[in-house]
Design brief:
By secondary structure, the protein is an all-alpha fold. It contains three helices and no strands. Helix 2 packs antiparallel against helix 3.
């Protein structure tokens, strides 16, 4: 779980932008769940129709921004998992990925 301090500094945040990176483009970076939920709402509104062309374009642009934020969070999570797996493989014997317990084919 990410703490508020980690979110505000960007240390556990999305992407590889380092401290203070802001994938949303302005203001503070939303948490993954916040960006995902807002993206779902944007898609729902676009699919519902009834918006003007200008409103639809604004929603589409916001959706693209939110998708980038989500992608950066997910990429950061993948990098952390890969690093943890690599660390466990380099550690004590038998501390690999669990493949050593599987029968040979």
């Amino acid at each position: 779980m990410t703490t508020t301090d980690e979110q505000s500094t960007g240390s556990a945040g999305p992407g590889s932008g380092g401290a203070g990176s802001d994938p949303a483009g302005a203001g503070s970076t939303p948490a993954y769940e916040q960006a995902r939920d807002e993206l779902i709402e944007v898609v729902r509104r676009l699919e519902a129709g009834g918006s003007t062309l200008e409103e639809s374009l604004a929603l589409w642009e916001r959706g693209e921004e939110l998708a980038k934020v989500c992608r950066r969070w997910l990429d950061g999570a993948r990098a952390r998992l890969d690093a943890a797996l690599a660390e466990s493989e380099d550690g004590a014997p038998g501390a690999g990925t669990g493949d050593e317990d599987r029968p040979a084919r």
